[in-house]
Design brief:
single chain; 120 residues; 5-stranded mixed beta sheet; 34% helix; 30% strand; elongated
């Protein structure tokens, strides 16, 4: 019955940019994350925060599912494995609750460590 209603009402498509922005915002709100990383292809692990949350986020969005890759910089003295697990959960919940898409995977690449005094 749900499929029939969707056909009668039309199609909903959520762009990669929307999912990317949601994932980036959720990542930056996760404790222990210092910044998103622009990656080596954009210069020496250029660190970005706040204004451009889509940097460091790559998504693949299908009709019902999404896969997300994140490149991050963590704060020194935080257990990286715990921060990454929390990050995966936060991103999954944010994307699924705001878009209705099923997140099949959240892959994380830790590209750096920042000290609290570092300008990120």
């Amino acid at each position: 019955m749900t499929e029939q209603l969707q056909l009668e009402l039309g199609t909903i498509r959520i762009s990669d940019d929307v999912v990317s922005k949601i994932a980036g915002m959720a990542a930056l709100e996760t404790p222990g994350i210092a910044a998103m990383s622009g990656g080596l292809s954009e210069g020496w692990a250029k660190r970005l925060s706040g204004k451009n949350v889509q940097k460091g986020v790559t998504v693949e969005v299908g009709q019902l599912e999404a896969a997300i890759d994140l490149r991050i910089i963590v704060l020194y003295e935080t257990p990286i494995h715990e921060v990454c697990r929390m990050l995966q959960q936060n991103v999954r919940v944010a994307v699924e609750s705001l878009t209705g898409l099923h997140v099949v995977e959240v892959n994380i690449k830790v590209e750096g460590v920042a000290f609290k005094d570092d300008e990120v």
